[in-house]
Design a protein that fits this description.
- This protein has five helices and four strands, in the order βαβααβαβα.
- By secondary structure, the chain is an alpha+beta fold.
- A four-stranded antiparallel β-sheet has the order 2-1-4-3.
- The termini are far apart.
Length: 171
């Protein structure tokens, strides 16, 4: 009998988790809320925001701390993008913290997509900051899959994707 896989969620695992997104211009607060809840169902409910109208643009930041990453990590496993996630989540990794973004347009339909660094995609992004003493180990554990028994991976190794998002191929 196969043992159930360990499921991490970041909460109570010695991590500081900050999730935020900016509503700007004509962003629909309801659509932004749907995108957040599709990936982070425990994100705190935000106060009601007026729907933007002509001449009345929106500019607001929604922020949640210590929100479970359980659904996000489950989606990474289901979509089989764990190596891509490890690479994207660690582009700005400094040993004890990292910040990465998710596309809100993908999130609204329960998909995980990472924009290239410095990209400002249509539809906006959800920004995730993780901080912790053993963050590197946690990230590798959270994105672990059986294929790593055959082809081990680690943060910023020689198999990481290139800065333009292209895959590095094995020869």
């Amino acid at each position: 009998m196969q043992e159930p896989m360990l499921r991490l969620n970041g909460v109570n695992e010695n991590l500081r988790i900050i999730i935020q997104t900016e509503l700007r211009g004509a962003d629909s607060p309801e659509k932004v809320r749907e995108a957040l809840f599709a990936v982070f169902p425990e994100f705190p409910s935000q106060q009601e925001v007026d729907v933007p109208t002509l001449g009345n643009a929106i500019h607001e930041t929604w922020r949640g701390e210590q929100v479970s990453l359980g659904t996000f990590l489950k989606l990474l496993h289901e979509q089989r993008i764990l190596d891509t996630a490890l690479d994207a989540m660690t582009v700005r990794f400094d040993g004890s913290s990292t910040t990465f973004e998710l596309l809100r347009q993908a999130a609204i339909v329960g998909k995980i997509a990472f924009p290239l660094d410095e990209e400002q995609p249509l539809g906006g992004v959800i920004s995730i900051t993780l901080e912790g003493e053993n963050l590197g180990d946690w990230l590798e554990a959270a994105t672990w899959h059986k294929g790593r028994d055959i082809a081990p991976r680690s943060i910023k190794d020689d198999l990481a994707m290139s800065e333009d998002g292209e895959a590095v191929t094995w020869i």
